[in-house]
Amino acid sequence: MLNRRSSLTRSPLARSSGGERVRTPRKRSRSGPTDTTRQGVYERDGFACCRCTRPVSDSTPVSIHHRTPRGMGGTRAPSINEAPNLLLLCGSGTTGCHGWVESHRDDARRDGFLVASWEAPETVPFRDLAGDWWLLPDKFERILVGVGGQVAP
User: Fold this and answer.
1) Among 8-12, 49-53, 107-111, 136-140, which stretch is predicted with the lowest mean pLDDT?
2) DSSP annotation string for 48-73
3) pLDDT at 104 exceeding the cut of 90
4) Residue 152 or residue 52, greater confidence
5) CA distance 65 to 38
């Protein structure tokens, strides 16, 4: 016989002002970077997309991209939400440069927008559309390491 019990628990019940029982919504846990890290990434990347260099504005949707993917179930590795693993990209996971990275994974890996789980993001440069290569070696630091498609030795 199948055991249909799961580790999922229901939201707690509370009483409304009328006395009936109502379900209270659970607080959703945040699995992404902290607000301080998010702000630091925006500032480090100059409030512009790291791929096309389009400035961030109210009319340009942007998102923070994880170079090493979090995986479908997420991860507990703290490095996944640290600044060297994060890039500011225009669009969502399906539009703009972020959409391009997600749908052209081999090209994105070649250009440094995707990093394998065994690689350290701070050692893998990425290339913008102008052909310039950038390295994110530390918390909120961004260093030009190659111009016009050539990485400096």
Assistant:
1) 8-12
2) B-TTT-PBPBTTB-EEEEESS---TT
3) yes
4) 52
5) 11
pLDDT band at 23 (very low <50, low <70, confident <90, very high): low
Burial of 153 (0-12, 13-18, 19+ CB in 10 A): exposed
Residue 101 identity:
V
Characterize the bridge pairing of strands 86-90 and 126-127. Answer: unpaired
pTM exceeding the 0.85 threshold for the entire prediction: no
From the list 150, 151, 118, 124, the residue with the least C-alpha distance to 137 is 124
CA distance 131 to 98: 18
Within the chain, strands assigned E span: 13-15, 21-23, 62-66, 86-90, 126-127, 133-135, 143-147, 150-151
Q: Which of 9, 10, 13 is nearest to 24 (CA)?
A: 13
The answer to whether 44 touches 134, Cβ cutoff 8 Å, is no
Mean pLDDT of 94-119: 94
Q: Residue 108, Cα to own-chain centre: how many angstroms?
A: 14
Is residue 29's pLDDT more than 60? Answer: no
